[in-house]
Amino acid sequence: MPPVDIVFEHVGQPSEALADEATQLFVSLMSGGPAAAALVGGDLGLVPSLASMIIRALLLVPGVGDTFTARDAEGALVAFTLFSLPGQLVLSTPEQQDVGRMSDFMAKLSPDGRKYYSEVMAKEMPKANDEAFGIQDAERNTYWCHFAMVRADSQGKGIVKALFNLATTAAAKRKAKMALTTTTARNVPIYEKLGFTLHGHRVMPSPWADWQVWFFAKEVQMGEA
Predict the structure, then answer these.
(1) What predicted TM-score, i.e. pTM, was given to this entire model?
(2) Which of 157, 162, 180, 195 has its CA 20 to 30 A from that of 106?
(3) Distances 208 to 58, 59, 158 between C-alpha atoms, Å
(4) Helices (H), the chain
(5) Spatial strand order in the sheet of 7-11
(6) Alpha-carbon gap, residue 43 to 23, rounded angstroms
(7) Which of 47, 2, 4 is nearest to 23 (CA)?
(8) Residues 186-211: pLDDT tens digits?
(9) How do residues 46-77 score in pLDDT, each as one tens digit?
(10) Rounded distance, CA 73 to CA 26, Å?
């Protein structure tokens, strides 16, 4: 059971302030590592811009995503999850790209970084997702988890399970399969305990460092939580 002073919420109208809080939490947990290096073209100083781009697009454009938060007794953000809704694809529309300030992020990438983003992240990864799950355009056609972040001092206390219970209920109402990828080996048993099935593993090469990705999905039923 999570601590009794933690307040969980399915946020109906996410704010700019929440986008900033979520970005800060992401950066505190994911400021390094081979996957992060590949995503920012080897320049780890761009991790905050990368996180802000995706979080803002999901959180601030109506009808694109679902946001679930956990806050402590002082109101500080302890954890959050962000899902894109079935039928939506993050950063696929001019509005999402504008709200996410995508052009600013892309302008900061090195030429090699832009090439890697356009070839691997925009083409090879979606293809790998489709192959792993056996679903065409898998990210668009599932209830896709982009972020599941828990503050370091609050991990292992049942908070992520409570957040995923809320998300599972939302996915069940939409009759949607849940899916996600993780680039961190220690997350693999966590997602398995949350009821997700491992659908494969790949090593993705990059000019900066090879990185790993695991593919998970979960079938949900009405009334499940």
Answers:
(1) 0.95
(2) 180
(3) 28, 30, 35
(4) 16-29, 34-39, 47-60, 94-99, 102-108, 111-116, 125-133, 159-173, 188-193
(5) 7-11, 65-71, 77-84, 143-150, 178-182, 211-218, 197-204
(6) 17
(7) 47
(8) 999 999 999 999 999 999 999 999 99
(9) 999 999 999 999 999 999 999 999 999 999 99
(10) 21
